[in-house]
Amino acid sequence: MSRAALYRLVFVAAGVALLELLCRTGVIDHLTMQPPSDMVRDLAVLLASGSMNKAMLKTFTNVAIAGALAVAFGVAFGVAIHGYRAVRQGLEPLFATYYAIPVYAFYPLLIILFGLGDLPQILIGFMLAVVAVIVNTLNGLDRVSRVLMKTARVYRLGPVATARKITLPSAAPYLLTGVKLAVAHAFIGVIGAEFIMSQTGIGYEISFAYNNFDNKIMYPLILLVLAASIAINSALSRWEQVLMRRRSRS
Amino acid sequence: MTAKSWLSAANSMILVAGLLVAWQILFEFAGIQAITPPLATFLNLAHLLTTEAFWGHLEETGRAFFFALALALLLGLAIGFWLGAHRFSSEVFEPILVAFYSIPKITLYPIILLAFGLGLPAKIAFGTIHGIVPVAIFTMTAVRNVNPILLKTARVFKLGVWKVVGSVLLPAALPEIFTGIRVGFSLTLIGTLLGEMFGSQRGLGYLLMTAIGLQNVPLIMSVTLLIVLFAASVSSLLIVIDHRLHRRMS
Questions:
Q1: With the CA atoms of B171, B177, B182 and B187 taken in that order, what torsion angle do they form, in degrees rounded to the nearest 10?
Q2: Which member of A27, A43, B35, B112 has the lowest number of beta carbons within 10 Å of its beta carbon?
Q3: B15 reaches A (C-beta below 8 A)
Q4: What is the largest CA-CA distance in chain B?
Q5: Which domain holds residue A4?
């Protein structure tokens, strides 16, 4: 472990310990916040009881669908418009201002259009995720060096072979950045939508527990969401770094 | 105006026209129960802006957003300058910042509500935690990438810490920092509105939430339109300044 990682671990541990101390000594009211050790224990109990399995399955499935749709559509769209300067210039202002628009504002409309099922939540996750994928796909394709493309032409590779042997490996780290953002945004979108209005899912369970002052369910679930999103994100970041290093080596 | 800025203005016009047409077509398919057509929505919004109650909500949101943005910029810049100037601190804390960026902060909402209570402080806190990370990350990268010669020059002139920040670091890193401020603006707006959707009795977010409950489509559409117009126009303005700053530096 590097020195920085060690310090980081100590910092986080100290933060958790401080929180634990404040809760145990009653500086932070027990109704406001539970001690972290209780949260972990309650989470274990909750997971073992299986009462949240349905909600968890729902949320993670929806996140996966939204993320996968965003990646598939975003990469396809990016590849399709990459060669057309006019189209890209026309869409430029949209990409630039897209994340300034609160996507959740469209959630009510989606509910009215599609009903209160899974679709509006998946769409919110998709809408949040897709533009990041498109932008990163375009960025990755732009960075494939001309020499490599010329080499492909010299060897008379067909479009599929060019994509498989040249374009994809070279653009891979940037595509993965898009995937990473897609997962994070799909997570944020789906859980946010569940929070605002839904009938099931982790976000719904958290807000339900909050409204009933049920700290034994609320805090463990919050912990679960945080842990899951941080774990997925750091795994993808590590993979991204590996690809980036391989790319700069070759 | 140069030919290039004319071109981008024309691009934006075409894009806006395209979106309006798509909206109208969507209306033809979805019908009046689901959405209101563009012209009617603009008229509804104009009417809404003449009512006094609406201005109350607008003022409340404006106030919360103003404070949230001010806090996010202040704290984000402070963290960014510190981590950018101090290599080891950034190695320790950068992963924590990135992890915090990727979590669905909406799940922290119950904790913030319990800590701050219902009302303005909770909204401000919620807006701030959304906006602070991008400002900090962009500022950190910008400060880290400042040309070392400039810093050496500052040392030769024996400038004090504040003088270095004010006359060397800030001007040199400004374009990148401004990009962070632009992203921070958008996210703070989203955060503030989200905050109002749950823990509030006033503001645009609250208005949206009640409109969802009442299935009041015209109200949902007008408020959404206002938010999108505000976000898109301010964001476009910031992008223009952003580009100008970047051009001036290169």
A1: -150
A2: A27
A3: yes
A4: 70
A5: 1-33
Q: Which two tokens stand for residue B17?
A: 């026209």
Return the structure tokens found at A32. 């406001």
Residues A14 and A128 in one domain: no
* Polymer length in residues for chain A: 250
Examine the domain organization and report whether A78 and A101 are in the same domain: yes
- Minimum distance, in Å, between the CA of residue B249 and any CA atom of chain A: 21
B3 shares contact with chain A (CB less than 8 Å): no
CA distance B166 to B164: 6
DSSP A51-104: TTHHHHHHHHHHHHHHHHHHHHHHHHHHHHHTT-HHHHHHHHHHHHHHTTS-GG
Are the beta carbons of A166 and A144 closer than 8 angstroms? Answer: yes
Q: Which amino acid is at B146?
A: V
Task: Mark whether A117 and A128 lie in a shared domain.
Answer: yes
pTM: 0.84
From the list B177, B20, B191, B234, the residue with the least C-alpha distance to B105 is: B191
Chain A residues with CB-CB distance to B185 below 8 A? 100
The reply to whether A230 and A205 lie within a common domain is yes
Contact with chain B for residue A222, Cβ under 8 A: yes
**pLDDT tens digit string along A181-210?**
899 899 989 998 998 888 888 988 988 888
Domain count, chain A: 2
Q: ipTM score of the complex? A: 0.78
Provide the CATH number for the domain around residue A49.
1.10.3720.10
**Residue bearing tokens 């008379």:** A156
